[in-house]
């Protein structure tokens, strides 16, 4: 029951009236603001269910959005601003996990499977051709073929 | 009384499902005809009792019978009738009953239209289908019974989640379930064929329509969900790579692959064991999807809050059916002899490439979805995998798929000469690249996404047209038209579906690349410019709906002094559920959507207003509808309806294409 209540609270947070980025948060410099939006879309709202902070309505997401903008105003690069948040909230805040350590498995799984798939397919097609060379057409089939071609 | 009747019918359904499993399977292995024949009446009866049971629950919702726990939790007397009915499946228990009903429906269809299957194969298909029913009915009755009563019925209910009170979402789950559960049919066919130890062209022909139907329903269901997210969530996102979305997307990808490989089995009697494996996995992903949605193991925006007991039960079902089927597969797959031999350059190879790309794409989605869980369990590394990962890791596969599609579609079976395949496509290729260049020039640099989308979409659509033109042959117009008319519906379906894929791809790329967004505070009467449009916040009113309170804005949009639209974005509050929602106002257009959202009042007397121009947004869902139409066309092909050829020798079943 507590679990259900918690979910309900999260659903509420999800649909709370304040909608994502608010006008009062936005930076005056459009270039800086565009960078902030770009960064926000890759950061997770920690209390939400799989939402980035740019779309989230939660208060925490707003805090994070403001933090990103503060860092950018202070002259941080995009990477530095992200690093600042990772230092405080952990790797969990990144929606695109870093390609290091065990995460290499995640990133390389697709390409590796593709290569394996292509390899297996090519070997399979080659082998099946070797084991079963198509028989040449016999006289009946040749006659039928020329008849079909005439039609 | 009606409710108890429905409850009783549900239990009867479980008993009938047991009969449908045991008798035909035992009969088929012993060769007892009477036992085998029991499958059909059992399947029919099971469908009808579950239909009664579902009708009883619907009756409970429609009459607002608050002595039912489920109705109390999910309904309210003031709720509009449509949502009283859709509320039946807007919750875990009811949606599970719908799932079981559809499962029985497919079983009954197999019983009714299975006349030209061999008696043992039909008995085994029905038996396996019955076993799936047993598992899910047991799950429903023992862990999630929708007919539970309350001692002291309250005066009114807790209402359905307002986000779900929407026509798009009323029909989203039934379509998805028709798709998910449709794959149980291909699973049953695969397992039955493994038990029989026989997979031939007739099997391929039998499995294709079921796969096609399931894939079509999944396409429509996913499109409905995505469309709903677009207009309901308030900022026009159409895909979030949420675990639950992925749960529906994985079976879609695998069933798309299965659709193509089953064609190879049917036409060329090759790729048999691979096709069987896909058929098993496709349903496997449906089961995994059910587990993801209903266990709450992975956090997702789709809040089907549930207790772990249900998750464990579903995991058991998944493990049982996948474990059993894959063991059977490991034992029997080697005995499936491929007949058709093909060269590296051939339509078969192109379809293998399609299968590799779709399966690997599905694998990427799968590993991305479960990675947070795996990473935390094994390395104690708590992390998130979200949209940026999937965009980067998944997109290349779709690009590659679109790139090879028109070439593969034109290739002949067995052996192709690349020069001859490419010759008619050269024009299309040149034109597509020109389209991409044009788009790139028009947008003056910027993101490469839109040009790429333009190239791929033109390539797909032009490739389809060239395919059709080639099939029409040479000669006078009348002759070409006649040949086109006489093309099998399946070929038309293929062309239409492929073109639809192009349309969707273009919509996704264009919307992502060219969206214009404007967020600001506006006072009533104020006019502001967004892109080439002028937007005026004319008025903001308070009002009441049937079961909500609303703040509604009147916004006028003009372009060059001419009025384009008057839109009414709303902010609603549902007092019973104590939940606010945003209702964006959208002016739908062929080339763009205007998307307006009203936000909160500001201290200075203004309102937060969001304006989006969403280019080619509707192309995304139009493409999905076109894909589904292609599927429907293919499904009406007489080769599927008149499966008379199914019993003929495999040689006779290979059409001269």
UniProtKB/TrEMBL annotation, chain A:
<keyword id="KW-1133">Transmembrane helix</keyword>
<protein>
    <recommendedName>
        <fullName>Cytochrome c-type biogenesis protein</fullName>
    </recommendedName>
</protein>
<feature type="compositionally biased region" description="Basic and acidic residues">
    <location>
        <begin position="141"/>
        <end position="151"/>
    </location>
</feature>
<dbReference type="GO" id="GO:0005886">
    <property type="term" value="C:plasma membrane"/>
</dbReference>
<feature type="transmembrane region" description="Helical">
    <location>
        <begin position="104"/>
        <end position="125"/>
    </location>
</feature>
<keyword id="KW-0732">Signal</keyword>
<dbReference type="GO" id="GO:0046872">
    <property type="term" value="F:metal ion binding"/>
</dbReference>
<dbReference type="GO" id="GO:0017004">
    <property type="term" value="P:cytochrome complex assembly"/>
</dbReference>
<dbReference type="InterPro" id="IPR038297">
    <property type="entry name" value="CcmH/CycL/NrfF/Ccl2_sf"/>
</dbReference>
<feature type="region of interest" description="Disordered">
    <location>
        <begin position="131"/>
        <end position="151"/>
    </location>
</feature>
<feature type="domain" description="CcmH/CycL/Ccl2/NrfF N-terminal">
    <location>
        <begin position="9"/>
        <end position="149"/>
    </location>
</feature>
<keyword id="KW-0349">Heme</keyword>
<comment type="function">
    <text>Possible subunit of a heme lyase.</text>
</comment>
<dbReference type="InterPro" id="IPR051263">
    <property type="entry name" value="C-type_cytochrome_biogenesis"/>
</dbReference>
<dbReference type="Pfam" id="PF03918">
    <property type="entry name" value="CcmH"/>
</dbReference>
<keyword id="KW-0812">Transmembrane</keyword>
<keyword id="KW-0408">Iron</keyword>
<keyword id="KW-0472">Membrane</keyword>
<keyword id="KW-0479">Metal-binding</keyword>
<keyword id="KW-0201">Cytochrome c-type biogenesis</keyword>
<comment type="similarity">
    <text>Belongs to the CcmH/CycL/Ccl2/NrfF family.</text>
</comment>
<dbReference type="InterPro" id="IPR005616">
    <property type="entry name" value="CcmH/CycL/Ccl2/NrfF_N"/>
</dbReference>
UniProtKB/TrEMBL annotation, chain B:
<feature type="transmembrane region" description="Helical">
    <location>
        <begin position="425"/>
        <end position="442"/>
    </location>
</feature>
<dbReference type="GO" id="GO:0005886">
    <property type="term" value="C:plasma membrane"/>
</dbReference>
<feature type="transmembrane region" description="Helical">
    <location>
        <begin position="175"/>
        <end position="195"/>
    </location>
</feature>
<feature type="transmembrane region" description="Helical">
    <location>
        <begin position="125"/>
        <end position="144"/>
    </location>
</feature>
<feature type="transmembrane region" description="Helical">
    <location>
        <begin position="448"/>
        <end position="470"/>
    </location>
</feature>
<keyword id="KW-1133">Transmembrane helix</keyword>
<keyword id="KW-0812">Transmembrane</keyword>
<keyword id="KW-0201">Cytochrome c-type biogenesis</keyword>
<feature type="transmembrane region" description="Helical">
    <location>
        <begin position="41"/>
        <end position="62"/>
    </location>
</feature>
<dbReference type="InterPro" id="IPR003567">
    <property type="entry name" value="Cyt_c_biogenesis"/>
</dbReference>
<feature type="transmembrane region" description="Helical">
    <location>
        <begin position="312"/>
        <end position="331"/>
    </location>
</feature>
<keyword id="KW-1003">Cell membrane</keyword>
<protein>
    <submittedName>
        <fullName>Cytochrome c-type biogenesis protein CcmF</fullName>
    </submittedName>
</protein>
<feature type="transmembrane region" description="Helical">
    <location>
        <begin position="616"/>
        <end position="635"/>
    </location>
</feature>
<dbReference type="InterPro" id="IPR032523">
    <property type="entry name" value="CcmF_C"/>
</dbReference>
<dbReference type="Pfam" id="PF01578">
    <property type="entry name" value="Cytochrom_C_asm"/>
</dbReference>
<keyword id="KW-0997">Cell inner membrane</keyword>
<comment type="similarity">
    <text>Belongs to the CcmF/CycK/Ccl1/NrfE/CcsA family.</text>
</comment>
<keyword id="KW-0472">Membrane</keyword>
<feature type="transmembrane region" description="Helical">
    <location>
        <begin position="274"/>
        <end position="292"/>
    </location>
</feature>
<feature type="transmembrane region" description="Helical">
    <location>
        <begin position="207"/>
        <end position="229"/>
    </location>
</feature>
<feature type="transmembrane region" description="Helical">
    <location>
        <begin position="491"/>
        <end position="514"/>
    </location>
</feature>
């Amino acid at each position: 029951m507590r679990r259900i209540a918690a979910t309900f609270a999260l659903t509420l947070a999800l649909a709370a009236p304040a909608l994502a980025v608010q006008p009062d948060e936005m930076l005056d410099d459009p270039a800086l603001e565009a960078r902030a939006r770009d960064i926000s879309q890759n950061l997770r709202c920690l209390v939400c269910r799989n939402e980035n902070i740019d779309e989230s309505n939660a208060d925490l997401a707003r805090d994070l959005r403001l933090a990103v903008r503060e860092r950018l105003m202070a002259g941080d690069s995009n990477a530095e601003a992200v690093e600042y948040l990772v230092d405080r909230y952990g790797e969990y805040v990144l929606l695109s996990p870093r390609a290091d350590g065990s995460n290499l498995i995640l990133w390389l799984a697709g390409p590796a499977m593709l290569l394996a798939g292509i390899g297996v397919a090519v070997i399979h097609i080659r082998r099946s051709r070797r084991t079963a060379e198509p028989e040449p057409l016999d006289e009946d089939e040749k006659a039928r073929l020329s008849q079909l071609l005439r039609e | 009384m009606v409710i108890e009747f429905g409850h009783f019918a549900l239990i009867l359904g479980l008993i009938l499902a047991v009969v449908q499993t045991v008798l035909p399977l035992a009969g088929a292995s012993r060769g007892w005809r009477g036992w085998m024949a029991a499958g059909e009446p059992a399947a029919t009866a099971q469908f009808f009792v579950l239909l009664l049971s579902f009708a009883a629950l619907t009756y409970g919702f429609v009459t607002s019978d608050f002595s039912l726990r489920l109705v109390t939790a999910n309904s309210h007397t003031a709720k509009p009738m449509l949502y009283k009915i859709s509320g039946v499946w807007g919750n875990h228990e009811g949606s599970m009953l719908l799932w079981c009903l559809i499962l029985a429906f497919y079983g009954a269809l197999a019983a009714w239209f299975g006349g030209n299957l061999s008696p043992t194969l039909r008995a085994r298909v029905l038996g396996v289908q019955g076993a799936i029913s047993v598992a899910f009915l047991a799950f429903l009755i023992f862990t999630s019974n929708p007919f539970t009563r309350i001692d002291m019925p309250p005066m009114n209910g807790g209402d359905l989640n307002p986000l779900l009170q929407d026509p798009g979402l009323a029909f989203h789950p039934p379509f998805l379930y028709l798709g998910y559960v449709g794959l149980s049919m291909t699973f049953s066919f695969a397992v039955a064929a493994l038990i029989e130890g026989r997979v031939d062209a007739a099997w391929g022909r039998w499995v294709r329509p079921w796969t096609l139907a399931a894939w079509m329903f999944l396409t429509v269901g996913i499109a409905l969900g995505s469309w709903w997210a677009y207009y309901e969530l308030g900022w026009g996102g159409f895909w979030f790579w949420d675990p639950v979305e992925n749960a529906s997307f994985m079976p879609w990808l695998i069933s798309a692959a299965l659709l193509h490989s089953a064609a190879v089995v049917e036409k060329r009697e090759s790729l048999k064991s691979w096709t069987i494996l896909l058929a098993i996995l496709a349903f496997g992903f449906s089961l995994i999807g059910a587990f993801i949605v209903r266990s709450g193991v992975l956090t997702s925006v789709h809040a089907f809050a549930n207790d772990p007991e249900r998750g464990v039960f579903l995991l058991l079902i998944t493990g049982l059916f996948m474990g059993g089927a894959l063991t059977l597969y490991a034992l029997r797959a080697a005995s499936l002899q491929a007949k058709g031999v093909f060269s590296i350059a051939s339509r078969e190879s192109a379809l293998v490439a399609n299968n590799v790309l779709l399966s690997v794409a599905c694998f990427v989605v799968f590993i991305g979805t479960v990675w947070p869980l795996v990473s935390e369990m094994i390395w104690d590394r708590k992390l998130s995998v979200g949209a940026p990962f999937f965009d980067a890791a998944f997109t290349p596969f779709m690009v590659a798929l679109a790139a090879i599609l028109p070439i593969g579609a034109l290739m002949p079976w067995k052996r192709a000469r690349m020069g001859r395949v490419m010759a008619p496509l050269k024009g299309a290729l040149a034109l597509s690249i020109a389209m991409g260049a044009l788009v790139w020039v028009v947008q003056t640099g910027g993101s490469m996404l839109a040009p790429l989308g333009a190239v791929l979409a033109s390539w797909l659509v032009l490739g389809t047209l060239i395919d059709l033109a080639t099939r029409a042959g040479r000669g006078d117009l009348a002759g070409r038209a006649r040949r086109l008319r006489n093309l099998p519906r399946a070929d038309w379906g293929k062309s239409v579906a492929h073109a639809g894929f192009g349309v969707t791809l273009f919509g996704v790329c264009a919307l992502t690349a060219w969206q214009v967004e404007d967020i600001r505070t506006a006072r009533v009467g104020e006019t502001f410019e967004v892109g080439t449009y002028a937007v005026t916040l004319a008025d903001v009113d308070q009002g009441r709906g049937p079961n909500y309170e609303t703040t509604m804005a009147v916004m006028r949009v003009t372009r060059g002094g001419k009025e384009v639209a008057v839109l009414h974005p709303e902010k609603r509050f549902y007092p019973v559920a104590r939940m606010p929602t945003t209702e964006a106002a959208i002016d739908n257009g062929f080339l763009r959507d205007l998307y307006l959202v009203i936000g909160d009042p500001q201290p200075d007397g203004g309102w937060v207003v969001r304006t989006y121009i969403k280019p080619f947004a509707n192309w995304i869902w139009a493409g999905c509808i076109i894909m589904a139409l292609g599927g429907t066309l293919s499904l009406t092909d007489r080769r599927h309806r008149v499966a008379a050829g199914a019993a003929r020798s495999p040689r006779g079943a290979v059409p001269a294409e």
